[in-house]
Target: Metal-sulfur cluster biosynthetic enzyme
Amino acid sequence: MSQDMKDSMMGALENVIDPELGVDIVNLGLVYDVELDEEGTSKVTMTLTSMGCPMGPQIVANIKQELMELPEVKDVDVNVVWSPPWSRDNMSRYAKMALGVR
Model:
């Protein structure tokens, strides 16, 4: 998979907002990896801010919706992992500023 394709996929994922925090999942550091195989199946490895996050299914649905808009993507497989666990350190500078976190 090319870096351009990876950038396109991450760009699409920046449209997915965590409803609780109001910041996108990329800047929150929730997306650990994106891949695209030869068949056009996109695999997203991500986590959620908390294990009991009630917005998990909504976020996964939004991820699928955004990635399916890319012509190269035929199918989306979202893999939610809990290791490594998410922490505030994963957040971009933008996310920290938006949420007032130091």
Observations:
- The mean pLDDT is 95.
- The helical segments are 3-13, 56-67, 93-99.
- Residues 56-67 form the longest helix (12 residues).
- The two ends are 35 Å apart (CA to CA).
